[in-house]
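Support reply, case 0932

Customer input (verbatim):
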Amino acid sequence: MPVRVALLAFLLTASGVANAASVDKAFSPATIGSGAATTLTFTVSNPAGQPVRNDVGFTDTLPSGLVVANPSSVGGTCSNAAAATIATAGTGTITVTALQILAGPSSCTVTVNVTNATGQFNASCAGTPAAFTNGPSNLAVAGADTNAVTASCLVVNGPTVAKAFSPTSIAGGGTTTLTFTYANPAGAATAPNVGVVDTLPGGLVVANPANLGGTCANAAAATIATPGGSAITTTNLQLPAGASTCTVTVDVTNATGQFNACCAGSPSSFTNGSVNLSLTNVIDAVTPSCVTVLGGPVVVTPSFPVPTLRDVALALLALLVGFAGLRAMRPKENGRSRGRFRG
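Our regenerated output:
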């Protein structure tokens, strides 16, 4: 039996299977801001006793939320890392062919810059989200070399938008300013193509004038808000690189005949929340905001108590006694004076 095992080990070694080169990969850093780059490093290891190789190859298909960055900055410590690698900016494939590695034991690297695809963000790697996790199934290794990959996930923090009314209470026909606040996280690149459509709740419309403004570089130019309309549309808004914030502002008023005395229960006709938003290349960070609109019809509530059955009975009794008294006071007829004076 020992002879057979030794023979099998010799044959596997001679064929290159037992001591094949292995390929692993990982992101560094593991968290980036949207539009920033992380380096994807492929580490190729040649085990002891193995000769120089010039035929190592593999193809990595990036998960759907990621693409090769621009520039791709292909490099590494393998002698022909850049020459052996094709990684076109904006694509999802990295291909390495005829890579040269030293005799074992040795290791060297191939590096490629990677970023998030447009509009793709990932707040957490809990649960290893498929669109941002680069694992063994993404890597195809040529020949008899070994796929030794441990799954690596990338967090991509994207720009966020929140919104709120100020003031939160107006008289009917008055105006409140609806402010959209955009935040770009630390490390994020400039975002030139952020879009938001906010459909106002049924009790509100864009004021006249709308007074478009804000602190984002192209806030007014990027925003359409027609007085009397219910939609506020922002396209291709420019956000500065992170960490940063800027705003878009629009004046809003109540629709004709629409009033709201109280925001308790978040009345849908006067509460502007996430359900009102349609987003492009930005993350929803909205907390619902409600506005009260005073000045509707006044409803008077009687302040007197509702009479009980006993109260009604006593009132009727009093009326009967009163009528009896009046009848007793009437002058008698049948020859008696009716009160005419006779001298």
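We compared this against your earlier run and they match. Two observations from our side: The first helix runs from residue 2 to 15. The chain has two domains: 19-157, 160-294. Please reopen the case if you see a mismatch on your end.
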